[in-house]
Amino acid sequence: MPVPLVVWIHCEPGDRVSIAGLAALVGAVAARGGHATIGLSPAYAAAVAPSLLASWAATGHQIGAHHHGYFARDLPAGWDGYSDTGAAAVHPDTRGGMADFANRLAGVGVFADVASVASAGFDWVASATHEVTGGAARSAPMPATHGTYLVTQITSAPLGVGQSATVAAHIASEVALCLPSQVVCVACHAHEISAGELGVVLDAAIAAGAVIVRAAQAIAEAAP
Ligand SMILES: [Zn+2]
Q1: What is the mean pLDDT of residues 42-47?
Q2: 45 pLDDT more than 80
Q3: Which residues surround ligand 1, an ion (CB under 5 A)?
Q4: Which residues contact 168 (CB under 8 A, 6 or more apart)?
Q5: Distance in Å, CA 224 to ligand 1 centroid
């Protein structure tokens, strides 16, 4: 059985919008017969041409949400402006609560049924059914709660700049060890990782037996 590898592309808030960078990463996944999982905030989603979003969705890539909460480490520049926390509600940069977050994504054709979050444990999207957090590259999909919301959680290993050889070896070993109940996930930032760097990791993973599938498919295929 091929091992499901999820490639989670985190699109960062603030001034780090890189449509060309995002497109290059999606292209690197598609060139290897795979489907990317893309996480967008409402502002980032609005910056991507609707025709581009539609073409990604139509060709099988997963377009979900990426949220940086009010208490993200890099506040205020790294906050996406949405939160249900009391302190954020009165902050001058507040754009709305998490219901607004989901509604504004839906308004540009993005549905927050799959998401990654930088504020684990609070501020979740009511419509989210799957979630990705940092952590181990290999995990079994697990039930988790965010506030009052129940989601299915997997973890991901980050690919940072200059780390492609190290991460490629790590991901390949995780693919080799992956149980039928588990999925492997690597995460990278659209604004800083090149298609070449991601490609090194993908080629090593594929050589080890992985197929790159969207997050929802990987979670669905992992045995309970
Ligand atoms: Zn992020």
Answers
A1: 94
A2: yes
A3: 10, 12, 118
A4: 200, 201, 203, 204, 205
A5: 29
Output 50-55 pairs: Cβ under 8 A, ≥24 positions apart: 50/108, 50/109, 52/19, 52/23, 53/108, 53/109, 53/110, 54/109
Residue 41 Cα, ligand 1 centroid: separation in angstroms? 9
DSSP bridge pairs for 184? 5, 138
Q: Nearest to residue 187, comparing CAs of 121, 102, 116, 129?
A: 116
**What is the 70 CA–ligand 1 centroid distance (Å)?**
12
Domain range for 59: 3-221
Query: 165 CA to middle of ligand 1, Å?
Result: 22
For the chain, give percent helix, strand, coil, nearest 5. 35, 25, 40
Q: How many other β-carbons are positioned within 10 Å of the β-carbon of residue 140?
A: 17
Number of domains in the chain: 1
What would you measure as the largest C-alpha separation in the chain, in angstroms? 51
Structure confidence by residue, pLDDT tens digits, 176-216: 999 999 999 999 999 999 999 999 999 999 999 999 999 99
CATH code assigned at 63: 3.20.20.370
Q: Ligand 1 centre from 188 Cα, in Å?
A: 9
CA–CA gap between residue 115 and residue 96 (Å, rounded): 18
Model confidence at 132, pLDDT cuts 50, 70, 90, reads confident
The two structure tokens encoding residue 97: 């609560």
